[in-house]
Design goal:
The complex is a heterodimer of chains A (about 725) and B (about 180). With about 725 residues, chain A is an alpha/beta fold. Chain A has a 7-stranded mixed beta sheet, covered by helices on one side. In chain A, helix 4 (about 125-140) crosses helix 17 and helix 11 packs across helix 12. Chain B is an alpha+beta fold. Chain B has one domain (about 5-180): Alpha-Beta Plaits (2-Layer Sandwich). The longest helix of chain B has 9 residues, at about 20-30. Classes of the chains: A alpha/beta (about 725), B alpha+beta (about 180). The interface between A and B is large, with 82 and 64 residues.
């Protein structure tokens, strides 16, 4: 998306009318030249601190409000996750708040599901309809037949509602479609996952290794800040990626690996580090079990062996192994975030964890810190009552013994009658556009058609709203107060989300919607508070925090805590052995490889490329691609294809192409980016484009939707993750 | 008269081309839809797999010898405090002579009828704040300060690091420095 300036102006000029900025420019005199320094006058007459929801990192923000309108959003210097700075999306909250396509009134479906025909109704009618649906479901199938999909911080009220109602089927695609394998892999090794925000101490790392993780393009504010701070202090950087990512452009070593073979590289690195004695002997001796078995396991995993799989020269594998080991223990092999790639993802992230253990980086400065958390007592709710049935997120006869969250794709399948131990018959969907978030969207549609009832709470008319019986328009994060945020982090802190402006249109905050539903289905006792502000302040007060300071600053930061072994913390490992498990007896007992084994992935057929997808710093999946403010700097995705491969196909840079997968699913047309920056056996595009929802009037028809092309997945047998990088495509010129 | 000599440094080793600077500038300065005062250049050289990349957050260079000021027939384009090049909207007729003269393509015609560009956020600088692009940047790659002050961050960086300016051959004396 590298427009030249003139192109940018031309493109923009075609769309935007000459809408002059309204406010007159206030003039002030400064300097000796006699001309005024123009002040654009965007400072607010009041500034409200809150935290962001454009992605799920939850950075502290300061929102400037002038004449009742949010003029700009800047980083909150007091908030530990933003430190006064923001990623591109953070500034763009106004583009969501003032999106003309927002859901404005509750909607009831008129025709068949997916037909996108609705009538506007008032809130009582819509809520009664939801309550009727929920009551009928409970009477007919039991409360466990209701599932909640949730992604976003306002979802907490609906999770509470589901537990009170009696269902444990609460799922988010952020687990089995994203970071789940990493959590499972690290938990098996260190006894805990890395969580979100991750406990990576990149800022102090002397060497950072990224596997497929494209920091800078994948934008989590604090991580990118830490990454840049480490680079500015001279940290080494190894990037393993089939694509010359932005991060690869900064690397000391870029390893353009063959997709799907990272595990072979990791095993060869471990081989070299053990063979040359480069590991942290003292640390491994003190904290880890299974070194001898690991040594035996990798004895034949030589750099030459890995070369055949990865196409990386053996001497480069040796050189980089020495490079990253030379910086230990402040040598961080990053666990990644979106890691559901090939179905062996838990084992691959296990290898990442084992490598980190050999480097002695867990619990060490410049490795993984042991996070501190501000204790925040739960709201004193009425007890939930009997334990609900376990989630129906696994097909009959299957078991994913190392899943530690509900599998979103499994809940979807359980909605197809007879698949799971019991059928899911109703969905509440909070802020989760399942059509672009779950693989195999045709299966999702099949599941929805089998439901008794589906209601969607959202801000925008995303694809999923088109399938709902009832659509409930939620206020944006700038118009509501949510749950407090007090994650485990480098310093303990608690942040508050506060309403910046009144809700626009007939939208309502999530807490209000959940409470109104609860009142209608006999669960009023579970929502005893007046509003979410009262709720949040009750919790803050119970934690001994100063509520006035919290409201004024948006955040209360606790005393600095000891978070590394260097600080004097003794790490504890919640594993069966109480130690770091290089060798996992738990895996062996469950019938899995106790040490990671590499299996070569299926090769793309001749003339086809492996389909890879990733992130843009400007967008959060498909959630922000309708945001007109953000889209000024990125309004579509492109298909990255190796320039030589493009030449062979007779395709030119910039022309419109169509991607066709192995099952003959054809993508929407998108521009070709013929580039040196990618291997010739794969193609790449940014996820989140190709919307077809008619209500998304800006995003609709821009770019291609990679999710539709993911008609195949490879399931991780350990935790049920859906490996999605197993689809192959050919690239064709768009037919006129 | 002695006063500040404003300059900016861009650490290309840190910049990830995320465009946070572009959007923060647009919000701070109420830049109309479809226009921008700063922009990103992602440059890649070489052939796979021997590649080199440079990312640059670019904007008006606030030249010491600004050709835009020379070209302006009305005096709207002028050198303001600290050497920043500004446009006085009331005096600008939108004739675009400055746009033709600028070697950096840093100016555009605002829908309001005047020519607009980066101001180094002088309205912020005069109260001691950093420009919007600098203060938002999640990679800390931008710095702004007084080149006349040997202790300023920009002076330090230019002493310590290799740098280049864009199109030095024009002789304009640009004041945005790209650290390599």
């Amino acid at each position: 998306m590298a427009y030249t300036r003139r192109e940018f102006i031309r493109i923009a000029g075609a769309g935007a009318g000459a809408a002059a900025v309204g406010s007159g420019l206030a003039s002030r005199w400064w300097g000796a030249d006699g001309d005024p320094v123009p002040d654009p006058g965007t400072d607010g007459d009041r500034v409200v601190p809150s935290f962001c929801e454009l992605c799920f990192w939850k950075c502290g923000i300061l929102c400037h409000v002038k004449d009742g309108r949010v003029t700009k959003i800047v980083g909150n210097p007091k908030h530990p996750l933003s430190r006064g700075r923001l990623c591109p999306r953070g500034t763009g909250g106004t583009g969501l708040l003032y999106d003309p396509d927002r859901l404005k009134k509750p909607l009831l479906r008129v025709n068949g599901r997916g037909g996108q025909s609705f009538r506007e109704v008032e809130w009582p009618e819509a809520l009664d309809r939801v309550a009727d649906g929920l009551k009928a479901l409970r009477d007919k199938h039991g409360p466990e037949a209701l599932a909640l999909y949730t992604h976003g911080y306002g979802g907490s009220w609906f999770k509470h509602l589901l537990r009170a109602y009696g269902s444990a089927n609460v799922a988010a695609p952020s687990y089995a479609q994203c970071r789940g394998p990493r959590e499972a892999g690290f938990r098996l090794t260190f006894g805990q996952g890395v969580g979100s925000p991750e406990n990576t101490d990149m800022e102090n790392a002397r060497c950072i290794t990224l596997l497929g993780s494209h920091l800078g393009e994948n934008m989590h504010n604090t991580q990118v800040q830490d990454f840049a701070l480490a680079l500015s202090r001279g940290a080494g950087l190894v990037v393993v990626d089939p694509r010359f990512s932005v991060a690869a452009g900064k690397a000391d070593h870029w390893l353009p690996i063959k997709p799907g073979t990272d595990l072979a590289l990791l095993l060869a690195w471990i081989h070299v580090i053990l063979a040359e004695g480069l590991y942290d002997h003292e640390y491994v001796e003190k904290y880890a079990v299974g070194l001898d078995k690991l040594r035996e396991h990798v004895a034949d995993k030589t750099p030459e062996w890995a070369y055949a799989a990865t196409t990386l020269p053996p001497e480069k594998i040796v050189e980089t192994a020495r490079f990253l080991a030379g910086a230990r223990p402040a040598s961080l092999v990053h666990p990644g975030r979106h890691v559901t790639w090939y179905g062996d993802d838990t084992q691959r992230t296990r290898a990442v964890a084992i490598l980190n253990a050999l480097l002695g980086s867990w619990g060490r400065r410049g490795g993984f810190f042991l996070p501190a958390q501000l204790p925040l007592p739960k709201y004193p709710y009425t007890h939930y009552g009997t334990e609900p049935k376990p989630p129906a997120d696994v097909a009959k006869g299957h078991n994913y013994p190392f899943a530690d969250e509900t599998i979103a794709s499994g809940v979807c399948e359980a909605s197809i009658p007879g698949t799971a131990d019991y059928d899911i018959k109703g969905w509440l969907v909070y802020g989760t556009n399942l059509m672009l978030a779950l693989p195999e969207p045709e299966k999702t549609k099949q599941a929805i058609q089998a439901l008794d009832f589906i209601a969607v709470v959202d801000v925008l008319p995303a694809e999923i709203t088109g399938w709902a019986d009832v659509v409930l328009p939620e206020s944006t994060y700038l118009e509501r107060c949510d749950e407090l945020d007090a994650p485990p982090w480098r310093v303990p802190f608690a942040a508050v989300r506060q309403p910046v402006v009144e809700p626009m249109y007939d939208s309502k905050p999530g807490w209000w919607i959940a409470r109104e539903i609860a009142h209608r289905v006999g669960l009023a006792d579970y929502f005893p508070w007046k509003d979410s502000v009262e709720y949040a302040m009750q919790r803050a007060h119970a934690a001994g925090l100063d509520c006035d300071v919290m409201k004024r600053d948006g955040v209360v930061v606790g005393a600095p805590a000891a978070i590394t072994i260097e600080d004097g913390v003794e790490p504890a490992f919640d594993t069966p052995s109480g130690k770091i498990e290089l060798y996992s007896q738990a895996l062996a007992d469950a019938g899995f490889d106790p040490l990671p084994e590499f299996t070569p992935p299926e090769e793309p057929p001749p003339g086809m490329f492996r389909l890879l997808f990733g992130r843009s710093p400007v967008h959060t999946f498909g959630r922000t691609t309708n945001n007109r403010f953000l889209s000024q700097v990125m309004s579509s995705n492109e298909l990255w294809l190796n320039r030589r491969a493009a030449d062979e196909l007779g395709l030119a840079d910039g022309e419109q192409v169509v991607v066709v997968n192995q099952d003959e699913v054809r993508s929407e047309p998108l521009a070709l980016r013929a580039t040196q920056r990618i291997r010739s056996d794969c193609v790449y595009l940014v996820h989140g484009y190709g919307h077809d929802a008619p209500g998304l009037r800006f995003a609709r028809g821009r770019g291609a939707n990679d999710t539709r092309l993911v008609t195949r997945t490879k399931i991780d047998p350990l935790m049920g993750g859906t490996g999605m990088n197993v689809n192959f495509v050919r690239v064709e010129r768009r037919q006129p | 008269m002695t006063g500040p000599r404003w300059a900016m440094t861009v650490d290309t080793r840190l910049c990830v081309a995320c465009k946070a600077c572009v959007l923060a500038c647009k919000a701070e300065n109420a830049v109309p839809d479809g226009f921008c005062r700063d922009w990103l250049v992602e440059e890649t050289r070489g052939e796979f797999p021997e590649l080199h990349a440079q990312n640059r957050s670019e904007r008006c260079n606030h030249c010491s010898e600004p050709p835009c000021v020379d070209a302006c027939p009305t005096g709207a384009s002028h050198v303001a405090g600290g050497g920043a090049v500004l446009v006085t909207h009331d005096k600008c007729t939108g004739c675009k002579a400055c746009i033709a003269a600028c070697p950096y393509d840093a100016r555009y015609v605002h829908p309001g009828g005047w020519v607009d560009k980066c101001t180094f956020c002088l309205h912020r600088a005069q109260r001691g704040d950093q420009p919007a692009c600098v203060s938002v940047c999640p990679t800390y790659c931008l710095d702004f300060g007084d080149l006349g002050d040997p202790d300023s961050v920009v002076s330090h960086k230019l002493r310590e690091r290799r740098f280049k300016v864009l199109h030095p051959e024009t002789g304009c004396g640009p004041n945005v420095y790209f650290l390599e």
